[in-house]
UniProtKB/TrEMBL annotation:
This is Phosphate transporter. InterPro entries: Phos_transporter. The keyword Transmembrane helix applies. The chain crosses the membrane at residues 34-59, 65-83, 95-113, 145-168, 175-195, 201-223, 235-257, 269-287, 308-326, 354-373, 393-410, 416-433, 469-494. It is a multi-pass membrane protein.
């Protein structure tokens, strides 16, 4: 019979085949997206580095374009990205680990305050020889100086990148110090290095984390004995939390006056402490009624106490980021500023002004690095070394500010990275010691089951992860020599190619 409709099975088979093909295409697209995802962050970082180089050529307005400055600007952007990926995690990690901030909120706050600190209060003058490590008279000429600073910039950026990859928070300032030292030795020999200065820097490897850890542990002990172990925890908190907030406000006011306002006004230690005392008094007067109102209706247990420390912890993390941006970014972009000055003036100086566009590269590079690569180190510092809550994290943040003030008073060189991470270790080790002391006070029959475990099993269940502790300490120890060796090799290659 002519004109009869096609069987339904034929249409069904065609649609089934089409659906099967579309599903295959969809799976291929998903697999492509999954494979390409790890390349997104490096691609954005590379685009920023290229943009920084192009922007430097445009802003300088020179023709022909000075390719040395363009290249240095690119490596300066690379260094800034690595600072954001590594150094900033120390400020935000405790707040994230304590669940006072989400990871996204921490990244946003850190990006804003790091950039603000760098642009508003960053040093307008920086030591090109990085705090007197190398004698300027030992460097032969401007070209040699440029290649030395270029090698220092490249080596320090590479080292911080490697440390981030293995999950070790290191001092970017120490990386720059090592880079300058290595390039200086390669350019002018061992006699060009100020070894007493290097000895003081090496001493800070021990001083910074030990001092930071001791201060953090001391405040945690105070909180435990004056608030947590009291019968009426809420009443104790109403007395002590405003006082702790006042100490935090005063410490950060002094810290920012010393480290973050160098561009605006020069302040000595006594004036900074007076500022801190005034700000602390005002903070206590404001915090007392606020804490009393916030604590109304809270249950008499530790979980309620955590809510009272949440906001102070967030504020302290933001202030730490501002001070870090003001203090450390200038050190990181110092070699870039030195290269720009030497390329434009044809000579070199012990101290040079930092062009605004160089600080902009540093500020935005930190934000990009934090957003693209920072979460790994934030999680590690915040939750993988030891377990943090708002009270413990608050002690870490407070110790960072107080330790810098004490070190400035004593004239000791310290690293903000080592202080912050040392504070995390101090809190964890204090908890281990405190738990062991409580275990020893109780007879064996009264101990809970977890405290009747064999000694070997108790050792295995330590509150501080020993693998992270050993990795971080090893990275701290080798930072300066590793950056120095890398920088010396890069300088020899650059100098050979140039000549």
């Amino acid at each position: 019979m002519t004109g009869a409709p096609e069987p339904q099975t034929s249409n069904t088979n065609r649609w089934t085949t089409l659906d099967r093909d579309l599903k295959r295409i969809s799976r291929i697209e998903e697999a492509t997206t999954y494979v390409a995802r790890p390349m997104v962050a490096p691609s954005i970082a590379l685009a920023f580095i290229v943009f920084a180089g192009i922007a430097s050529a445009v802003l300088l307005g020179q023709f022909p374009v000075n390719m040395i400055v363009v290249t240095a600007a690119g490596f300066g952007a690379y260094m800034a990205i690595n600072i954001g990926a590594n150094d900033v995690a120390n400020n935000m990690g405790p707040a994230v680990g304590a669940n006072a901030l989400t990871l996204g909120g921490a990244i946003l706050i850190a990006a804003i305050f790091e950039s603000a600190g760098a642009l508003l209060a960053g040093g307008d003058v920086v030591s090109t020889i990085s705090k007197g490590i190398i004698d300027p008279s030992a460097v032969a000429d401007a070209d040699t100086f440029i290649w030395a600073m270029m090698a220092a910039l490249i080596s320090s950026a590479l080292w911080v990148n490697l440390a981030t990859w293995i999950g070790a928070p290191v001092s970017t300032t120490h990386s720059v110090v090592g880079g300058v030292m290595g390039a200086g030795i390669a350019a002018a020999g061992l006699a060009s290095v100020s070894w007493p200065t290097m000895g003081a820097i090496a001493a800070s490897w021990v001083i910074s984390p030990v001092l930071g850890g001791a201060v953090a542990a001391g405040f945690l002990a105070l909180i435990k004995h004056r608030i947590i172990y009291r019968e009426d925890k809420i009443a104790a908190a109403r007395t002590w939390v405003p006082l702790l907030v006042a100490i935090m406000a005063g410490a950060f006011a002094s810290y920012l006056a010393l480290k973050g306002l160098k561009r605006v006004v020069r302040i000595d230690l006594s004036a900074a402490l007076l500022i801190g005392l005034v700000v602390g008094g005002i903070a206590w007067a404001v915090a007392r009624p606020l804490i009393h109102r916030q604590s109304e209706g809270l249950e008499n247990r530790n979980k309620s106490l955590k809510t009272l420390f949440g906001l102070p912890l967030v504020i302290s993390a933001a202030l730490l980021s501002f001070a870090h941006g003001a203090n450390d970014v200038a050190n990181a972009v110092g070699p870039l500023a030195a290269i720009v000055h030497a390329a434009e003036a044809g000579d070199f100086a012990a101290r040079v002004a930092i062009p605004t566009w160089v600080m902009v590269i540093g500020a935005f590079g930190i934000s990009f690095g934090l957003f693209l690569f920072g979460p790994k180190l934030i999680r590690m510092v915040g939750s993988q070394i030891t377990k943090l809550n708002p009270m413990r994290a608050f002690c870490v943040a407070l110790s960072a500010a107080i330790t810098v003030i004490v070190a400035s008073w004593l004239g000791l060189p310290v690293s903000s990275t080592h202080i912050a991470v040392g504070g995390v270790f101090g809190v964890g080790f204090y908890r281990e010691w405190h738990m062991e002391q409580r275990r020893l006070r109780v007879s064996s029959a009264q101990r809970p089951p977890e405290q009747r475990l064999p000694r070997a099993e108790r050792q295995r269940r330590k509150l501080v992860r020993r693998s992270h502790f050993m990795t971080i300490v090893a990275a701290w120890i080798v930072t300066v020599p590793a950056a120095a060796l890398l920088s010396g090799g890069i300088f020899l290659v650059l100098n050979a190619v140039a000549n």
